[in-house]
Specification:
It contains 9 helices and no strands. By secondary structure, it is mostly helical.
Length: 205
């Protein structure tokens, strides 16, 4: 088998990202108010993996640097991934590169989840949008591998995202339908999401 085809096969089998149809998640999508822009980190991931498969390693490095810059000054910085990405790029290892880039997406997801907890009930609309983006990034980049390893775990993670949404409460409309936030339940949901994802990706932090 030619090297290029071998790299592609390794990327697909070693680390496969699956973009799921929005239609498949129509009911949950409505609850989250999707229609948000794609998480820039997920966009970087897709572009970088595509570049790696095409052998455009210089572009991979530039895109990875953009991802690291996005996390600068946030709760979960990505600097620690730089040496790993550089090493996998030097070795032209598509699968390992994809895994490290996916780790960066995971940091972005964690950032959104924990930022919501820190912000509390400050801005319900912003927090809900942030949670929706985190959930969609999980579906776009990580869920394919989670589901391949354990469909039950994939289902459990999505259920925890739903619990995080419920825990945010609801400001209601002119006080009607108002529901207080439950920060304890929200934090438990976030920690469970992290735990379940890291079972599939033990190298993620």
């Amino acid at each position: 088998m030619k090297p290029g085809k071998l790299d592609l096969l390794r990327a697909r089998t070693g680390f496969y990202f699956l973009i799921l149809s929005v239609f498949f998640y129509a009911s949950s999508a409505f609850a989250y108010g999707y229609g948000e822009k794609e998480d820039p980190m997920a966009t970087i991931f897709k572009s970088a993996v595509s570049s790696a498969r095409a052998g455009q390693w210089g572009d991979v490095v530039k895109l990875a640097d953009e991802g690291v810059a996005l996390q600068k000054g946030h709760l979960f910085e990505a600097d620690k991934l730089v040496p790993k990405i550089r090493d996998s790029v030097t070795k032209k290892d598509v699968s390992a590169t994809a895994a490290h880039l996916a780790n960066m997406v995971y940091l972005s997801i964690r950032e959104k989840l924990w930022r919501n907890l820190k912000d509390g009930e400050g801005n319900f609309k912003t927090s809900k949008s942030r949670l929706a983006m985190a959930r969609q990034s999980y579906l776009d980049v990580l869920d394919g591998n989670v589901k391949k390893q354990s469909p039950e775990r994939s289902k459990a993670i999505l259920e925890q995202f739903d619990k995080a949404l419920v825990a945010m409460g609801n400001p209601g409309v002119f006080g009607v339908g108002k529901k207080a936030a439950d920060p304890v339940a929200g934090e438990q949901a976030v920690k469970t999401i992290e735990n379940l994802i890291e079972r599939t990706f033990p190298g993620f932090k």
